[in-house]
Amino acid sequence: xxxxxxxxxxxxxxxxxxxxxxxxxxxxxxxxxxxxxxxxxxxxxxxxxxxxxxxxxxxxxxxxxxxxxxxxxxxxxxxxxxxxxxxxxxxxxxxxxxxxxxxxxxxxxxxxxxxxxxxxxxxxxxxxxxxxxxxxxxxxxxxxxxxxxxxxxxxxxxxxxxxxxxxxxxxxxxxxxxxxxxxxxxxxxxxxxxxxxxxxxxxxxxxxxxxxxxxxxxxxxxxxxxxxxxxxxxxxxxxxxxxxxxxxxxxxxxxxxxxxxxxxxxxxxxxxxxxxxxxxxxx
Length: 283
Ligand SMILES: *[C@@H]1O[C@H](CO)[C@@H](O)[C@H](O)[C@H]1NC(C)=O
Description:
Keywords: Signal. There is one protein chain. It contains 5 helices and 12 strands. By secondary structure, the chain is an alpha+beta fold. 22% of the residues lie in helices and 33% in strands. It is globular, with a radius of gyration of 21 Å. The chain binds 2-acetamido-2-deoxy-beta-D-glucopyranose. 2-acetamido-2-deoxy-beta-D-glucopyranose binds next to loops.
């Protein structure tokens, strides 16, 4: 039996709850990521890398921000950011839930070639807390920056129209299933293979420009290999993309970046960068 007293309590409780919800419309699980602040930080990162001057990030970073390069924590001024690069291409994707960006960057200059993936994470105040970068160069797996640039520029990464976007969970699950193929016999069945689909593994391109291009050619047949671990994600529903950084254990514990783009629920593009601790990558 519900007495009027209890009912009154319930009403007061509910109005209190409503007030709390209105006070924090997105709740603590969904921070209010500021896209323009994140875009400015990604631009500052590109400017700093172009100049080889970490100081140009000063206004964007928090007091105790961290820097990681090829899966190792470093002082930023001792890393690649202190080397000026001629940037030929960059594309930044936005994760508006995790407050993070992923930037793909190519410097094809033969004197200083790099293909770089960078995840930048922001704190609640919008300031950068972590710059996490996978920087492939000479000796990295299938490295040829000039070719990578050529292929990347052929692809279309237009934003996906609002009604046609895949869910965050689905995009993430597709990327995870793909990375699980080395260590799980059932993972390949969980990848939403698309047609056409093309893989750009550093400079090796599976695409032939045909409508039946497939990403299945040469996928792992040995599912008992070491797993791809320590995964870090940046998910952009508008791009249909997920960037996953990991440890590519079966290839010299390499630092690895895989980026996936889905279109209409199906895998369309895969980009990879794999750096083996300064050594020549071999399987
Ligand atoms: C599969 O990979 C594991 C781990 O590297 C290796 O021990 C095994 O020999 C491989 N199996 C085949 C059939 O190549």
